[in-house]
């Protein structure tokens, strides 16, 4: 069955879009007809992943329309923890595609180990401060610099915003902060027709936890707590991200938190 394309003509951006959840969302937006920009850190060791992503993006675009000449995908390097990166990212998007309709703040770091000052500062500056800077730049574009104003901003939070965890005192507050940021943005930006919501993934297999999940006993334990009986895949976040991006489906949804966790949270109560 061929599903309808829900984002044709829209321009979407995803921070941290090179791998994991961000990559899955970016590719799904392309499949739904959007033009897509991703932000990535820009280190030399990303070159292979970037080539692969460009190749997959090109395949999606060609399969969608073999006659299409212009690209619908760009990648912009920059450290999202720096205030100027969000501004530069949005400027590159507008230069390439003319406007910005959907912004996914996804970039983040996650290291569960003994917490020292360097780890604390890195986690806060990337996960929370970086999200603030980037969302602020997107909101300014959506509200004041394009006509008509409006759009959808999606913050990738976590089930960790709702529960604590060992060795996570540096991480869980940043994810709670993302949910809170989206709530405040929903209030501030509603008058411009901008909807702001948070997605809260549960345990999703990504490059951030692949080493941890190699422990078979730990993996089975984690799966046993999930009512759907499996760990999440990055693609599990793509559908909800399309829902929140699509005005026709979620036009009256703002300030919301949507768990994408296979039922884990309700089973922890």
UniProtKB/TrEMBL annotation:
<dbReference type="InterPro" id="IPR036291">
    <property type="entry name" value="NAD(P)-bd_dom_sf"/>
</dbReference>
<dbReference type="InterPro" id="IPR002347">
    <property type="entry name" value="SDR_fam"/>
</dbReference>
<dbReference type="GO" id="GO:0048038">
    <property type="term" value="F:quinone binding"/>
</dbReference>
<comment type="similarity">
    <text>Belongs to the short-chain dehydrogenases/reductases (SDR) family.</text>
</comment>
<keyword id="KW-0521">NADP</keyword>
<protein>
    <recommendedName>
        <fullName>Glucose 1-dehydrogenase</fullName>
    </recommendedName>
</protein>
<keyword id="KW-0560">Oxidoreductase</keyword>
<dbReference type="GO" id="GO:0006633">
    <property type="term" value="P:fatty acid biosynthetic process"/>
</dbReference>
<dbReference type="Pfam" id="PF13561">
    <property type="entry name" value="adh_short_C2"/>
</dbReference>
<keyword id="KW-0684">Rhamnose metabolism</keyword>
<dbReference type="GO" id="GO:0019301">
    <property type="term" value="P:rhamnose catabolic process"/>
</dbReference>
<dbReference type="GO" id="GO:0016616">
    <property type="term" value="F:oxidoreductase activity, acting on the CH-OH group of donors, NAD or NADP as acceptor"/>
</dbReference>
């Amino acid at each position: 069955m061929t599903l309808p394309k829900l984002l044709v003509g829209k321009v979407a951006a995803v921070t941290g879009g090179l791998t994991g959840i961000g990559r899955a969302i970016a590719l799904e937006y392309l499949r739904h007809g959007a033009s897509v920009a991703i932000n990535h850190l820009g280190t030399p060791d990303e070159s292979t992943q970037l080539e692969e992503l460009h190749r997959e993006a090109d395949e999606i675009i060609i399969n969608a329309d073999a006659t299409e000449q212009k690209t619908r995908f760009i990648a912009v390097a920059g450290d999202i923890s720096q205030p100027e990166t969000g501004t530069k990212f949005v400027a590159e998007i507008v230069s390439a595609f003319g406007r910005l309709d959907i912004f996914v703040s996804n970039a983040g770091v996650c290291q569960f180990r003994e917490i020292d000052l360097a780890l604390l500062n890195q986690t806060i500056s990337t996960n929370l401060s970086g999200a603030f800077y980037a969302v602020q730049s997107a909101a300014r574009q959506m509200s004041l610099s394009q006509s008509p104003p409006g759009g959808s901003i999606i913050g990738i939070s976590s089930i960790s915003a709702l529960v604590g965890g060992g060795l996570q005192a540096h991480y869980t507050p940043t994810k709670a902060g993302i949910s809170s940021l989206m709530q405040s943005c929903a209030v501030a930006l509603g008058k411009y027709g901008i909807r702001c919501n948070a997605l809260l993934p549960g345990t999703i297999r990504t490059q951030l936890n692949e080493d941890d999940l190699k422990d078979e006993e730990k993996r089975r334990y984690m799966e046993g707590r999930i009512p759907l009986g499996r760990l999440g895949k990055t693609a599990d976040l793509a559908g909800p991200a399309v829902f929140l991006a699509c005005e026709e489906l979620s036009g009256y949804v703002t300030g919301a938190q949507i768990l994408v966790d296979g039922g884990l949270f309700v089973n922890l109560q």
